[in-house]
Design a protein that fits this description.
Layout: E1 9-12, H1 18-28, E2 32-37, E3 52-53, E4 56-57, H2 58-62, E5 67-72, H3 77-89, E6 92-95, H4 101-104, H5 109-115, E7 120-125, H6 136-143, H7 145-148, H8 160-183, E8 187-192, H9 193-199, H10 202-211, E9 228-232, E10 237-241, H11 245-254, H12 269-274, H13 276-287, H14 292-302, E11 306-308, H15 312-318, E12 323-328, E13 332-337, H16 362-368, H17 373-381, E14 385-386
Parallel strand pairs: 1-2, 1-6, 2-5, 6-7, 7-8
Antiparallel strand pairs: 3-4, 5-14, 9-10, 10-11, 12-13
């Protein structure tokens, strides 16, 4: 792979979602990501199934492409030496160990910085300060997400706080790499799931701060924009998002209710928010008279944002070019979701390595670190490393 981060080496000691998501994004940009995993069980998500493909859990496959796997027991004295050498030569080190673990292993920020002054070191925790363990579900509870979602309290259906933390980590690392390249200085990057979640509340958090009142749950509606919610059509549900006064007028024209724009109660968004119940009742009666497809066709023609409420697989299959296909060593042809950005300088058709098997690249990575064959044999005998043994499945030609 080539890209703007070509030549950047990342030592990735993170696991599960936030850290691996961040390093997958950086790998998409061309970085050489070395995924350090326990030699027996690897990343926790390797066991988070079913479903599986070629013996690998779908969860693991989702966020680990473009990386190389080093199966290393960092708690073993021999493995610890390898981890320290890897950190000393890396441009970026990222970890999400429990508080104090990285320091005990000799790969905490201060120890790594002494050996590698220019390093960008990223630590991801559940809570600021890293004094409590945290998974997405507990962070969604603590951050207010469950309080404002669905029929409150309700968890968002994906680990959104991990995804936000991963994106924040990737952005901060990119900024730190620029400082490293231009000034030769390293940087400590600290990211928490809770901090990422709270920053992701954006207008909801700011409204609570301005009003001094607790945020409310609006289900599929919006607290400060009306109409911006789901409506029942004759054969299903659709979302309608008239985000300003112009779109509201276009909406009313498209559904044959121009009279609503002349009603003083509904002329401005402020009034529509205050008279939410009355307006929604009027619109709901109209939307119930036609099918989802009919309404979407009318609203699209009028330039009013609307959409069918789809399942995940349905959304993927109707969205266009949102997946890529890789040849996996054990799963064969593997379809994965693309990242949500493209760069003009990076070809969409470039070769991307599939998510690695556990320890698939152990020997080559140890050799790159200057570790001799005899030493590698000793590490294997001591149980400090693991090298995957597999036969690559040939590509399957389309029928």
């Amino acid at each position: 792979m080539t890209g703007p981060l070509d030549g950047i080496r990342i030592a990735d000691f993170s696991r599960v979602l936030a850290g691996p998501y961040a390093t997958m994004v950086l790998a998409e940009l061309g970085a050489d990501v070395i995924k350090v995993e326990h030699p027996e069980h690897g990343d926790d998500t390797r066991a988070w199934g079913p479903p599986y493909a070629g013996g690998e859990a779908a969860y693991y496959l989702a966020v680990n492409r473009g990386k190389r796997s080093l199966a290393l027991d960092v708690k073993h004295p021999f493995g610890r030496e390898v981890a320290q050498r890897l950190c000393a030569e890396a441009d970026v080190v990222i970890e999400n160990f429990r508080p104090g673990v990285a320091e005990r292993l000799g790969i905490g920020y201060e120890a790594v910085r002494q050996a590698n002054p220019g390093v960008v070191y990223c630590s991801i925790t559940g809570f600021p300060g890293g004094d409590r363990p945290g998974f997405d579900a507990t962070i969604q509870a603590e951050s207010g997400y469950m309080h404002i979602t669905g029929e409150s309290p309700s968890k968002v259906g994906v680990a959104i706080t991990d995804v936000l933390a991963g994106l924040n980590a990737a952005v901060a690392i990119l900024g730190a790499l620029h400082r490293q390249a231009t000034r030769g200085q390293g940087e400590l990057v600290e990211v928490s799931l809770l901090g990422s979640a709270l920053s992701g509340l954006v207008n909801v958090a700011q409204s609570a701060l301005v009003s001094g009142e607790e945020a409310l749950a609006y289900g599929n509606a919006h607290p400060t924009v009306v109409p911006y919610q789901a409506f029942e059509a004759a054969d299903g549900r659709l979302m309608v998002a008239a985000g300003n006064d112009r779109l509201f007028r276009a909406l009313c024209a498209a559904i044959g209710r121009d009279d609503l724009t002349g009603d003083a109660r509904f002329r401005t968004n402020d009034g529509r928010v205050r008279e939410r119940d009355a307006l929604v009742a009027e619109l709901g009666a109209v939307f119930a008279t036609r099918t989802v497809d009919e309404w979407i066709a009318r609203l699209d023609a009028a330039g009013v944002p609307s959409g069918r409420i789809r399942g995940v697989l349905d959304a993927i299959r109707t969205a266009g070019d949102v997946t890529l296909r890789l040849q996996h060593p054990t799963a064969g042809p593997l379809e994965l979701i693309r990242t949500g950005f493209t760069l003009e300088s990076v070809s969409a058709d470039r070769d991307i390595a599939p998510p690695p098997l556990l320890g698939q690249h152990t020997r080559e990575l140890l050799a790159e670190l200057g570790i001799t064959d005899d030493r590698i044999a000793l590490l294997r005998q001591a149980g400090a490393i693991h090298q995957a043994v597999h036969s690559v499945r040939p590509p399957v030609e389309p029928a």
